[in-house]
Amino acid sequence: MPAIKIDQDKIKEAVQTIVDLGGDGIRNCVQCGACSAVCPGVKAGFPVLCRLLIRKILNGQLEETIEEVSTWGCQSCNRCTEVCPQGVRPQEVVFAYRRYQAGELAMSASAFGPQMSLYETGHAVTTDATAANREKVGLNPVPPTALQNKAAQKEIQTLLDESPMADLGIF
Ligand code: SF4
Ligand code: SF4
Q1: Closest-lying ligand to the alpha carbon of 94?
Q2: How many CA atoms lie within 13 A of 130 on its CB side?
Q3: From the alpha carbon of 33, which atom of ligand 2 is closest?
Q4: How many whole angstroms from 53 Cα to the centroid of ligand 1?
Q5: Domains in the chain, start-ordered, CATH in brackets?
Q6: If exposure means fewest CB atoms within 10 Å of the residue's CB, which of 48, 62, 91, 140 is most exposed?
């Protein structure tokens, strides 16, 4: 039946796209939900992470979910990876999905601030609280990273200028 063939092609393409972008464990998912149960992103109100995000990809719904903002709520804690009985590494699937979104220039508005900060300072997230906490324990409020290294900042800017994100005009 032609309709089923189209769906199967779409599923194959969606899964392969995510595998190619680094989410190579996705085919092993059995939809048990253990990852979603421990995911702070899901608990914070970003439901399309872990099991549900994988379900949508396995259904071939890549285009339909391109504007999904939940993926940007991932905190990179890797709790999902620790509990997954199938070795899927759900965080890698989330990051692969983000790469797919970024490649299509479909980034969440909440991702723009960190991107601009990365371009300007070499760090995606810098806060006054972090600086104050470092001072409190006797450290230089500015960590010895790209924040203190103008040459590294310049290299990061060059990389970002060459990336698809430059097309967004946010730098
Ligand atoms: S790494 Fe991301 S997807 Fe995995 S549990 Fe943490 S917040 Fe959720
Ligand atoms: S814990 Fe692993 S197998 Fe279970 S739903 Fe999550 S990714 Fe799939």
Answers
A1: 1
A2: 7
A3: 5
A4: 11
A5: 2-103 (1.10.1060.10), 109-168 (no CATH)
A6: 140
| pLDDT per residue of the chain (171 residues) written in tens, 0 to 9 | 555 456 888 999 999 999 999 999 999 999 999 999 999 999 988 899 999 999 999 999 998 888 888 888 888 899 999 999 999 999 999 999 998 988 887 777 767 777 888 899 888 777 788 889 999 999 999 988 899 999 999 999 999 999 877 877 777
63-67: which pairs have CB atoms within 8 A and are 24 or more residues apart?
A: 66/100, 66/101, 66/104, 66/106, 67/106
One-letter amino acid at 1 equals M
| Nearest protein CA to atom 3 of ligand 2, as residue | 29
Ligand 1 centroid to residue 70 C-alpha, Å = 11
Whether residue 73 has its Cβ less than 6 Å from ligand 2? no
